[in-house]
Amino acid sequence: MRILKLILVLAALVSLTACGSLKRLQNVGKQPALSAIENPATKPGYKPVRMPMPVTTASIHQPNSLWRSGSRAFFKDQRARKVGDILTVNVRITDKAEIDNKTTRSRVNNQNSTISALAGFGKQALKLLPNGAALSPLTDTDSETKSEGEGTVDRAEKLTVTMAAVINQVLPNGNLVIEGKQEVRVNYEVRELIVAGVVRPEDISADNTIDSTKIAEARISYGGRGQISDMQQPRYGQQVLDILLPF
């Protein structure tokens, strides 16, 4: 019975790992496939962005005036401003952090208690105690606690890339929700870059570009998939053991 249970457990584990490895087996000797271009609104889990909006002011039209209230430029602006328009995003990330923490704590406690007289009951108390016992000192305890911790963090990250993004939504206050995805395949490795967030039309430069530092709620992902990425990742069984084992 124990052998049968062990076989069933192993079969269940093999079936679980086979589901995740089936696609990899199908792609043996083939290049990783690129994702199809899809409408983000049709993807599962897509939710329109909702943020606090300012009070809407009525547009004022003045007769015999070439200027329209609320207009950002006198001539027609060629920058991206409507759903479906494309703008260029310059991703410039330079992150450096150095943290050094050290904590030391020490505590020493001493407690002594001695009885020299017990109102004449000392002799009677000694009769009740085992041979060799004495009333003085009554208690004598020492305790010492010491803890020391030290941690150091030294991190430096740099990412410089230029890509295009599409306006998916125009918020009531005029801000634009953008999202862009770029995939580049080199041999058997796919490099994937994703940029999403909220931008102001005023921050888009005249050449229809915007820096990543001006993107609010920015979501930037840079990674890859393929044979090299698979070799850098631990196997599924090792990942499960790392999660379940308490030591």
Strand tally: 6
Mean pLDDT: 78
Residue windows where pLDDT falls under 50 for at least 5 positions: none
Strand-residue fraction? 35-45%
Summarize the structure in short.
Helix content is 19%, strand content 39%. The chain is built from four helices and six strands; from the N terminus they run H-E-H-E-E-E-E-E-H-H.
Describe this structure in words.
With 247 residues, the chain is α+β, with helices and mostly antiparallel strands. It has a domain at 102-151. It has helices at 2-26, 122-128, 227-232, 236-244; strands spanning 86-113, 139-170, 176-186, 189-199, 209-211, 216-226. It has a six-stranded mixed sheet. β2 and β3 form a beta hairpin. The longest helix has 25 residues, at 2-26. The mean pLDDT is 78.
Entry keywords:
247 residues; alpha+beta; six-stranded mixed beta sheet; 19% helix; 39% strand; extended
List the helices and strands and how they pair.
Blueprint: H1 2-26, E1 86-113, H2 122-128, E2 139-170, E3 176-186, E4 189-199, E5 209-211, E6 216-226, H3 227-232, H4 236-244
Parallel strand pairs: 1-5
Antiparallel strand pairs: 1-2, 2-3, 3-4, 4-6
